[in-house]
Specification:
Blueprint lengths: L57 E4 L18 H12 L7 E2 L7 H4 L5 H8 L6 H6 L1 H6 L8 H20 L5 E4 L21 H12 L5 E5 L6 H6 L6 E8 L26 E6 L6 H19 L3 E6 L16 H11 L7 E5 L5 H15 L14 H14 L24 H17 L2 E2 L5 H7 L3 E3 L8 E7 L3 E3 L16 E3 L2 H11 L2 E6 L16 H12 L8 E7 L2 H11 L1 H7 E7 L15 H7 L1 E6 L8 H4 L4 E5 L4 H20 L12
Parallel strand pairs: 1-2, 1-3, 3-8, 4-5, 4-7, 5-6, 7-8, 11-14, 11-15, 15-16, 16-17, 17-18
Antiparallel strand pairs: 9-10, 10-14, 12-13
Length: 683
Amino acid sequence: MASPSGPSRLPSECSGDKMDVDGQSQDHQHVVNTAFDIPRPRRALSMPATLRENAYQVGYVYSSKMMSHTCVHGHCEQPERISRIFDILNQNQCLEKMKKLPIRRVLREEALLVHSQALWDKVLALHSLTEQDIADSEAYYNDLSLYVHPSTPYAAQLSAGGVIEASLSVARGEVKKAFAIVRPPGHHAEPDEHMGFCFFNNVSIATKVVQLRTAIKRILILDWDVHHGNGTQRAFYDDPSVLYISLHRYEGGNFYPNGPFGSMTSCGEGPGVGHSVNIPWPEGGMGDADYILAFQKIVMPIAMEFSPDLVIISAGFDAAEGDDLGECHVSPTGYAHMTHMLSSLAGGKLVVALEGGYNLDAISTSALAVAKVILGEAPPQLPSLVASEAATETIWQVAMEQSKYWKNLDPKACEPIEEVEQLAFSLPELLKAHRQDYLFREHGMLEVPMMSAALIERFTSQIACTPDIMDNDKLVIFVHEFGNLSVELDSVMTCNVRQEHSYLVDCSKELLTWAKVEGYAVLDVNVFPKPFPKSKLKHTDDYGGAVMVYLWDNYVQLTAARQVILMGHGPGCAAIMSLIHQRAASVIKSVQGVVQVVGLHTIPMTPKDSGALRPWYFENSIVIVPSHHPLFHDSKTLKKHGSIFRMDEEKPIKLIIKAMPGIQSFIKQKLGPGTGVNGKASH
């Protein structure tokens, strides 16, 4: 292989896999004076060779030469990240108990197991950058969340090569566990792109090399960095031999690296489906209780069923208490307990590879806690812990999603309805029938018929209107999902419902009563589809949007209503936006206002930029969200909405109840006094 060019002051390409670039002996802490031949007691024949006095169970990889990758303006991914870890391990006598493993640069053919030739060439070309080149390209690399230096290629090659050597040493049985103290990090680097402080995907390359060069094939990668490891997940998305589990701050796709790839429904594809497990925290501030619960309920059950031959931790410490980028509260003891649990897998074969972590005190104390555990110490005792409501809900949702692929996860799902279909009624169908009867008895509301077989099968008995809909010139269209069904189970072992403590919370009751008093006509649309439909629409899977367009074309446009309010709650907001996109001209003409009420995990939608539609929406809409919704961190999306109201409530059902007086005021402002069925103004 041709040696890649590098800075003249740096050593040339290592000639063999076992060279230590620092030039130190592997056993430098155990130098023996051979001037005296001191006889040693003979080892008993029954004693395993691995229990020799000087045998190492744990290794580490480190080179100060990785500190050559620096930013002239200063940066949170600073060289001292690794030196501080090295120093604290040395000060606490950890290094003297660990074998110093050789470190080398990653070989081109190793990197190409994950990355493209184009990326390899792009990274190595950084060696020739001048100071002016760096200044001229700063904006380009800022967009990729990177900084560059002529020494960047060398440091990045060493970082990847160090994780390879640590992983091979464990895989070959030279040590039981290893800690790769390396930088720059790697888990954001995708096959064709460097990004997010990362140039080569260290852990992914090491995983591929271990599978290629050793008998170990089944590998678990546990990524506890506060950011989703998009590059690592991408590298193994269709590979069933690698289980990738990530716990990360997600915030509906608005936390770096952004987008839906880190969502809980991003589970792999093809033969790798179910082998990508995302535990996406909806907000910052997660701590020990949240992470430990996720390990107990998701990580360990899936990992034990997968039964890996090797575990690699992508150990970013930016979820640690004190890290300003992560804004979470995991303690060193929390990291110690997670490491201890992972050490029980794969016969103890464990590699810890440094990823992120930008508070020097937090990263060093957290790394020390992890190092002590892999050296055999028990983790310190944790205080009494109670996980947050947001974390508990997220973990349950992940369990529901991943239980499709893993038998060890049992979120107490009922038997498939097919097994008892002839004897069963689904609760939604029963409650819809009750609701239809209630709407007729209390408000005189009638079912709206449909003609399409696909819509009938999904939404029959779910659309109702007040009897004045054809004559009233003021109409409120309320689009929502089923409501909140709260049930209490008899026990954790069964799905049997304790009926006297279970109920349906229907937020439409208050709105319907108020609209009737005000004299407004109402079209009530429940977009919760009937399960297991057999018919399909030809040109779309957007059934909520399809039913709204059908109602608009075949009913609303034929009524006397020329002053209309579109109000969406939860999933109903998407159906409303679909209608606005597809019928922009007539909507602008008739609709006086748009109301969206969304929970913490949903980003309120905006119309596509099509001439007058965007400014019309901005002037005539209100959005109601929880006070710490991720929308407020996205200034670009925020500017597209008109009036946004924050409420100190997270649950969508309670959010709309709390916001109802404000919603009613907005509707009255837009529609004025109603006429009512008798044609008389209401007061």
